[in-house]
Amino acid sequence: MIRSTLQPKALSGAQSSLSPIVLTHRDFALISALAHEEFGIELGPGKEQLVAARVGKLMRRLSFSSFREFYGHLQADRTGQCLTQLIDSLTTNHTSFFREQAHFAFLVQHVFPAWESSRPMRIWSAACSTGEEPYTIALIANEHFQSRRQPAPHILASDISTHALDTAQKGAYPAQRLQHALAPWLRKHLLRGEGQWDGWYRMRPEIMDMVEFRRINLIHPLPDIGRFDVIFCRNVMIYFSHQTQAQLVSRLAACLEPGGYLLVGHSETLTGIQHGLQHVQPAIYRKRGASK
Ligand SMILES: C[S@@+](CC[C@H](N)C(=O)[O-])C[C@H]1O[C@@H](n2cnc3c(N)ncnc32)[C@H](O)[C@@H]1O
């Protein structure tokens, strides 16, 4: 038995009398198989407690008291809504502005200055979570391209989590999310909330206009999204099996323009994956065929 140790907060009298949700090892195996099949996520041994807590929380929210009923509903639900809620509860959306700063320095020092085309650069943040990654790109790109009177890049930001995408699309963050060495720079470039928004910062309209959000599951064949000059696919492959990683990297490489860059998380490696990309520096790869 895997017991959810979660103590629900602020439950009503009726709900607070519910006993903790208990998942059997078979229940865990069913959820793991589903997460693998639908989202590529590997919930290996050691994740039982975490899964029990998160699935338990979701079951309470949806008012299920037995796993059997919940799983039955998950399978019968043709809208896919329950599956979406499951993935929202199982994924970790941890992110921050300027996370793994070396990548942003690389854009500013090498990629942006080399851009000579008259078309807008196309950048994809392929697991954008709550938006800090694509907005960091938009902020530094806006500063660079505006001063050179070049068109602002277009940024596609996608994730599988609708919950994370909802937050991202609002473009508003509490001040604590801006705690970073570059916080003073960020504060200067964001709009400071007033009144009921005191303590919050939001993106300026011109920054929001640079970013288009979309729900994309990276383990399925990609929709028709065109080609990109830079793809950020960071801190998501760690959840996938080696085979799923290899398939994803090959799809991403196919979506790169010649000379385009693929940026992965610094704890992720493409070692052992056939990708045909050139290794540029840690966690940065480039598709061959650039004119310079
Ligand atoms: C840890 S966050 C990384 C956010 C950001 N890229 C960064 O490095 O800060 C991982 C994100 O991957 C998303 N994710 C997990 N599985 C996915 C899938 N199959 N397709 C698309 N996104 C997925 C999660 O919803 C989550 O927002």
Structural write-up:
With 292 residues, this protein is of the alpha/beta class. It folds into 2 domains: 2-90, Chemotaxis Receptor Methyltransferase Cher, domain 1, CATH 1.10.155; 102-286, Rossmann fold (3-Layer(aba) Sandwich), CATH 3.40.50. Helices cover 38% and strands 17% of the residues. The protein has 11 helices and 12 strands. The chain has helices at 13-16, 25-39, 48-61, 67-76, 81-90, 102-111, 132-147, 162-170, 183-189, 205-208, 242-254; strands spanning 2-3, 22-23, 122-125, 154-159, 172-174, 191-192, 200-202, 211-215, 228-233, 256-264, 278-281, 284-286. The strands form 3 sheets. A 7-stranded mixed β-sheet has the order 8-4-3-9-10-12-11. A 3-stranded antiparallel β-sheet has the order 5-7-6. The termini are far apart. The relative contact order is 0.11. The chain binds S-adenosylmethionine (SAM). Residues 39-41, 91-95, 99, 127, 129, 133, 159-161, 164, 217-219, 234-236, 239, 265 line the site of S-adenosylmethionine. The site of S-adenosylmethionine has 24 residues, from loops.
Could you name the CATH class of the largest domain? Answer: Alpha Beta
Number of folding domains? 2
| Rg calculated over all Cα atoms | 21 Å
Biggest sheet layout:
7 strands, mixed
Task: List strands and helices in order, with pairings.
Elements: E1 2-3, H1 13-16, E2 22-23, H2 25-39, H3 48-61, H4 67-76, H5 81-90, H6 102-111, E3 122-125, H7 132-147, E4 154-159, H8 162-170, E5 172-174, H9 183-189, E6 191-192, E7 200-202, H10 205-208, E8 211-215, E9 228-233, H11 242-254, E10 256-264, E11 278-281, E12 284-286
Parallel strand pairs: 3-4, 3-9, 4-8, 9-10
Antiparallel strand pairs: 1-2, 5-7, 6-7, 10-12, 11-12
Helix pairs in contact: 3-5
The protein binds S-adenosylmethionine.
